[in-house]
């Protein structure tokens, strides 16, 4: 292995220590030219003869010295802490050797955090005789920089645990040996070298000398650490060398059909197939099709050979149920909603290469052939299961076609897959007094033979595959998948006794169809086949490298991380398997769930009626994309981001620059003679560009977008600082300077148009028209900044890019999509009357039963929620009034006389317990995703105790702890 680094960079020492820990050979070469490595980042690790490089220090040290699985989560957290918090804080502190006691900078609080973590265990991961790369990395960062400044004295006096830890590691023979290999000049020189080739986010353009470290400053009379980082000589030199010498490439023409090519970067992008019986809402859109579109557009602008396919998932019981509700055929339902989906995605400018569907002959052919193949290979089992048969309808009833009384909470209108009363998953055969949803007759239990995929037989191959590729998965995908592989797989049923689906191609079983989870993922293959008859070049590439990226929300992860790859592994036909599962958490609407029937939230058909452009929707959804946790759509926030980030920041910068060219330079880019101050802003832009590419390569779209906005902020600050409108009226030298500033700003605008295009394609096209460029492509996304618009280039006609979203418009839209308000007992004078509450519960329950007998879920589901709310109010009233459901007038009277403090205390206790249950539930989920049962089981017991206390107060039955294995398995089988 070989390392390339700039001289005196402490991060290179970390790689040397990692090699010593793992007893590996490491050659190191020093250079002052960052262009010798990937993305101009130093140090880099060349990992093999193919010249692949790692430019992330964290990735490199873990590649050299792998961390054990049980320690990897904690280790990653500390390594990330080192690079994203500690190092930027050190650069901000600047190694000046002075600590103002009235202002404790960010570095002080971080060392305090480290000191606390070392209080009970002297070392981060291992005991004192087994230094790990985590200890070594953080030690190198501190020892080489602030330890030799006045901060070192502060550490010795105030942070004894850190001081003891630092001294012990320095005394280790392995560290002394490494220091002999790289003689570091500690302090400010080490800080400057580390900052020279590492990306740190900047807050503002300052125009100061490039070698100066900027200290914290006062802001609104409050002392705070601005963490503004210096621009180094290396960065300035990179800009000087590339600005005029690097030729700006063009985007390649996209052929038809797009096929993988040997020697090129081939990217196959899919988004989870949206189900066809509903209208997608904003959460659905950003969870799959929009995220995939942004990434695919980015890849095309990098000249990667890219194909993006998706389509509607059209088989299954939900389609049958919707068809019964609307009194049409399932195919008519599919045709209707396919057109709706297609129209919505076109309006959102989703650029599929092909958008298909699963009700095709190609799908039937591929699914049936796949089944016969894996059956022939011995991966299909048969098993007899009990199902409900409606003798009146002469059909086995799928879960959604059965209703009855919940065996757990006795709710009378539970479905065959889930009870809406208590929220538990149920099996249809467990329902008390089951009834057919179509004819209301009581079904009988009858045995039925079904086919199962033998997942246990594939499990080891699946684990080996996942261990090799999961580093390319999003955190959400890894978290969801881990328990499945850890707890062991069970055989999964792949057929159903339904009418609507692909028939099983075996005599004696042709009345059965394939279950949707087996059928739908194979839709990626059949849709590609619809696009091109040469589809196998993508799915069975022969000696051609194809990278498969799949985008989805977290509920789809098991099908893409377990079921689909297991099927392809069982077939053993050299299909490509997914390398990158880019799953997200959920997007909520104003702190609640989207609901079409209740009019809550913006759905695809609503978005264009708001008067807000598709590009603004795309921008905001990417800005709040739930990449690592659930996020929330908020109207006020949408307006704020539009008005501040798009209108005042990005749009204002581009418009000012182009208007200035039109007015003062006859619409032609002026001559540019760059000074150090101009180089400074270009170096800042290069930093943002480098990080943009780094994030987009990982499909971290939200983070990438914020670096586009950072570039326009740098441009605005640069223009404001340089004041070209003043210089243009001054001396000849000042006029030249003003012209240079405007020329630089126009070139930055051109770069922004390319970087913005994956997120806002229509806006990017408009910017290019105003720049006097062809609108037929969006511009190549370069790694290195160079002139895009040379002097003399004629621009087009400038005009504003964005409009303000007014407060009045926000309130109107919030009201319009905030839900249809039902009559509620909250507004009734009788809401505190027990008899009225009981009557309201009974009436609402009857309404739910009536609607369920005649209407689809989108009609009766909101009424179930109202029923549950009423039941909760009734339970709370009974508790607070200290009466039972059959309370007498006498007991009501005595409860009225009860101390108000007592009732208030009970309500407060309920609120407190609900919060505790939510917090403990989140803790259980996190522990289950990352730890063994011995770790999370005690926390489950705590959660159950909290829920039991809450139930005692409210009378409500609460669902099992999150991640309950039994519930999960039932859900997949249903």
UniProtKB/TrEMBL annotation:
<keyword id="KW-0648">Protein biosynthesis</keyword>
<feature type="domain" description="WHEP-TRS">
    <location>
        <begin position="909"/>
        <end position="964"/>
    </location>
</feature>
<keyword id="KW-0963">Cytoplasm</keyword>
<keyword id="KW-0436">Ligase</keyword>
<dbReference type="GO" id="GO:0006431">
    <property type="term" value="P:methionyl-tRNA aminoacylation"/>
</dbReference>
<dbReference type="InterPro" id="IPR009068">
    <property type="entry name" value="uS15_NS1_RNA-bd_sf"/>
</dbReference>
<dbReference type="GO" id="GO:0017101">
    <property type="term" value="C:aminoacyl-tRNA synthetase multienzyme complex"/>
</dbReference>
<dbReference type="Pfam" id="PF19303">
    <property type="entry name" value="Anticodon_3"/>
</dbReference>
<dbReference type="InterPro" id="IPR010987">
    <property type="entry name" value="Glutathione-S-Trfase_C-like"/>
</dbReference>
<keyword id="KW-0820">tRNA-binding</keyword>
<dbReference type="InterPro" id="IPR000738">
    <property type="entry name" value="WHEP-TRS_dom"/>
</dbReference>
<feature type="domain" description="GST C-terminal">
    <location>
        <begin position="68"/>
        <end position="188"/>
    </location>
</feature>
<keyword id="KW-0030">Aminoacyl-tRNA synthetase</keyword>
<dbReference type="InterPro" id="IPR041872">
    <property type="entry name" value="Anticodon_Met"/>
</dbReference>
<dbReference type="GO" id="GO:0005524">
    <property type="term" value="F:ATP binding"/>
</dbReference>
<dbReference type="InterPro" id="IPR023458">
    <property type="entry name" value="Met-tRNA_ligase_1"/>
</dbReference>
<dbReference type="InterPro" id="IPR036282">
    <property type="entry name" value="Glutathione-S-Trfase_C_sf"/>
</dbReference>
<comment type="similarity">
    <text>Belongs to the class-I aminoacyl-tRNA synthetase family.</text>
</comment>
<keyword id="KW-0547">Nucleotide-binding</keyword>
<feature type="compositionally biased region" description="Low complexity">
    <location>
        <begin position="887"/>
        <end position="899"/>
    </location>
</feature>
<dbReference type="GO" id="GO:0000049">
    <property type="term" value="F:tRNA binding"/>
</dbReference>
<feature type="region of interest" description="Disordered">
    <location>
        <begin position="953"/>
        <end position="974"/>
    </location>
</feature>
<feature type="domain" description="WHEP-TRS">
    <location>
        <begin position="833"/>
        <end position="888"/>
    </location>
</feature>
<dbReference type="InterPro" id="IPR014758">
    <property type="entry name" value="Met-tRNA_synth"/>
</dbReference>
<dbReference type="Pfam" id="PF09334">
    <property type="entry name" value="tRNA-synt_1g"/>
</dbReference>
<dbReference type="InterPro" id="IPR014729">
    <property type="entry name" value="Rossmann-like_a/b/a_fold"/>
</dbReference>
<dbReference type="InterPro" id="IPR009080">
    <property type="entry name" value="tRNAsynth_Ia_anticodon-bd"/>
</dbReference>
<keyword id="KW-0694">RNA-binding</keyword>
<keyword id="KW-0067">ATP-binding</keyword>
<dbReference type="InterPro" id="IPR001412">
    <property type="entry name" value="aa-tRNA-synth_I_CS"/>
</dbReference>
<dbReference type="GO" id="GO:0004825">
    <property type="term" value="F:methionine-tRNA ligase activity"/>
</dbReference>
<dbReference type="InterPro" id="IPR015413">
    <property type="entry name" value="Methionyl/Leucyl_tRNA_Synth"/>
</dbReference>
<dbReference type="GO" id="GO:0005829">
    <property type="term" value="C:cytosol"/>
</dbReference>
<feature type="region of interest" description="Disordered">
    <location>
        <begin position="883"/>
        <end position="903"/>
    </location>
</feature>
<dbReference type="Pfam" id="PF00458">
    <property type="entry name" value="WHEP-TRS"/>
</dbReference>
<dbReference type="InterPro" id="IPR033911">
    <property type="entry name" value="MetRS_core"/>
</dbReference>
<protein>
    <recommendedName>
        <fullName>Methionine--tRNA ligase, cytoplasmic</fullName>
        <ecNumber>6.1.1.10</ecNumber>
    </recommendedName>
</protein>
<dbReference type="InterPro" id="IPR029038">
    <property type="entry name" value="MetRS_Zn"/>
</dbReference>
């Amino acid at each position: 292995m070989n390392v390339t680094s700039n001289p005196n960079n402490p991060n290179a020492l970390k790689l040397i220590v990692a090699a010593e820990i793992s007893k590996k050979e490491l050659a190191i070469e020093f250079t002052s030219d960052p262009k010798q490595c990937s993305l101009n980042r130093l140090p880099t690790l060349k990992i093999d003869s193919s010249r692949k490089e790692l430019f992330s220090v964290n990735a490199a040290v873990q590649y050299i010295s792998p961390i054990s699985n049980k320690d990897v989560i904690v280790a990653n957290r500390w390594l990330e802490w080192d690079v994203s918090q500690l190092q930027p804080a050190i650069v901000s502190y600047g190694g000046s050797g002075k600590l103002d006691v009235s202002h404790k900078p960010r570095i002080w609080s971080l060392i305090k955090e480290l000191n606390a973590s070392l209080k009970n265990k002297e070392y981060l991961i291992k005991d004192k005789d087994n230094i790990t790369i985590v200890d070594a990395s953080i030690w190198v960062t501190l020892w080489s920089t602030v330890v030799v400044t006045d901060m070192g004295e502060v550490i010795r006096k105030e942070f004894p645990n850190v001081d003891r830890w630092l001294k012990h590691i320095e005394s280790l023979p392995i560290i002394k040996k490494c220091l002999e290999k790289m003689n570091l000049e500690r302090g400010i020189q080490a800080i400057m070298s580390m900052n020279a080739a590492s990306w740190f986010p900047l807050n503002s353009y300052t125009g100061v000398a490039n070698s100066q470290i900027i200290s914290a400053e006062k802001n609104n009379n409050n002392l705070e650490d601005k963490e503004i980082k210096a621009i180094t000589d290396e960065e300035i030199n990179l800009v000087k060398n590339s600005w005029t010498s690097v030729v700006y490439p063009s985007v390649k023409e996209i052929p038809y059909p797009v096929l993988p090519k040997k020697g090129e970067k081939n990217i196959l992008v899919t988004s989870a197939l949206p189900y066809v019986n509903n209208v997608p809402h904003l959460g659905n859109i950003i969870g799959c099709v929009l995220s995939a579109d942004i990434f695919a557009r980015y890849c095309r602008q990098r000249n990667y050979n890219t194909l993006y396919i998706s389509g509607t998932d059209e088989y299954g019981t939900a389609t049958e149920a919707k068809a019964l509700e609307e009194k049409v055929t399932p195919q008519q339902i599919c045709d209707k909603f396919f057109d709706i989906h297609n129209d919505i995605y076109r309006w959102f400018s989703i650029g599929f290469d092909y958008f298909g569907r699963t009700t095709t002959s190609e799908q039937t052919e591929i699914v049936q052939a796949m089944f016969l193949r894996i059956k022939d290979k011995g991966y299909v089992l048969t098993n007899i299961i009990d199902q409900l048969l409606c003798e009146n309808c002469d059909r086995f009833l799928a879960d959604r076609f059965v209703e009855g009384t919940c065996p757990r909470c006795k709710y009378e209108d539970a479905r065959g897959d889930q009870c809406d009363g208590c929220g538990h998953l149920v099996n249809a055969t467990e329902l008390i007094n089951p009834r057919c949803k179509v004819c209301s007759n009581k079904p009988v239990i009858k045995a039925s033979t079904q086919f199962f995929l033998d997942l246990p037989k594939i499990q080891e191959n699946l684990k080996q595959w996942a261990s090799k590729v999961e580093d390319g998965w999003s955190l959400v995908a890894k978290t969801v998948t881990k328990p499945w592989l850890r707890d062991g797989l069970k055989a999964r049923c792949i057929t159903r006794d339904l009418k609507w689906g692909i028939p099983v191609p075996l005599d004696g079983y042709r009345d059965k169809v394939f279950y949707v989870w087996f059928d739908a993922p194979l839709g990626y293959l059949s849709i590609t086949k619809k696009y091109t008859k040469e589809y196998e070049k993508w799915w069975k590439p022969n000696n051609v490298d194809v990278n498969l990226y799949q985008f989805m929300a977290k509920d789809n992860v098991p099908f893409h991380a377990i079921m689909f790859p297991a099927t392809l592994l069982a077939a053993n036909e050299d299909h490509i398997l997914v390398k990158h599962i880019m799953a997200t958490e959920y997007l909520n609407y104003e702190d609640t769930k989207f609901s079409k029937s209740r009019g809550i939230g913006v759905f695809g058909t609503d978005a264009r009626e708001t008067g807000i452009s598709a590009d603004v929707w795309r921008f905001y959804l990417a800005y709040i994309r739930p990449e690592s946790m659930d996020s929330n759509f908020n109207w006020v926030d949408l307006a704020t981001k539009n008005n501040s980030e798009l209108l005042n920041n990005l749009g204002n910068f581009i418009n000012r620059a182009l208007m200035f060219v039109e007015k003062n330079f006859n619409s032609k880019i002026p001559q540019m003679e760059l000074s150090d101050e101009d180089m400074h802003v270009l170096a800042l832009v290069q930093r943002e560009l480098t990080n943009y590419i780094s994030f987009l390569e990982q499909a971290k779209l939200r983070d990438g977008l914020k670096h586009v906005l950072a570039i326009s902020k740098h441009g605005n600050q640069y223009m404001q600082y340089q004041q070209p409108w003043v210089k243009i009226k001054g001396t000849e030298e000042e006029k030249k300077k003003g012209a240079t500033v405007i020329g630089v700003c126009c070139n930055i605008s051109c770069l922004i148009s390319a970087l913005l295009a994956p997120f806002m394609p229509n806006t990017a096209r408009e910017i290019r028209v105003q720049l006097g460029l062809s609108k037929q492509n969006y511009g190549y996304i370069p790694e290195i900044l160079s002139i895009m618009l040379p002097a003399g280039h004629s621009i087009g006609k400038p005009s504003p890019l964005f409009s303000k979203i007014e407060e009045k418009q926000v309130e109107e839209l919030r009201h319009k999509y905030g839900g249809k308000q039902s009559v509620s007992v909250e507004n009734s004078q009788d809401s505190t009357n027990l008899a009225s509450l009981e009557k309201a519960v009974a009436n609402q329950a009857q309404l739910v039963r009536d609607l369920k007998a005649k209407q689809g879920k989108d009609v009766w589901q909101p009424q179930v929620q109202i029923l549950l709310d009423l039941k909760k109010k009734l339970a709370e009233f009974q508790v607070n009034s200290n009466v039972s459901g059959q309370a007498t007038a006498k007991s009501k009277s005595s409860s009225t006389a009860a101390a108000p403090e007592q009732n208030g205390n009970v309500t407060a206790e309920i609120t407190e317990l609900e919060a505790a249950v939510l917090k403990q539930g989140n803790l259980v989920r996190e522990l289950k995703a990352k730890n063994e049962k011995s770790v999370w089981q005690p926390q489950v017991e705590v959660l159950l105790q909290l829920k039991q206390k809450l139930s005692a107060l409210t009378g409500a039955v609460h669902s099992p702890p999150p991640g309950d294995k039994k519930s999960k398995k039932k859900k997949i089988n249903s």
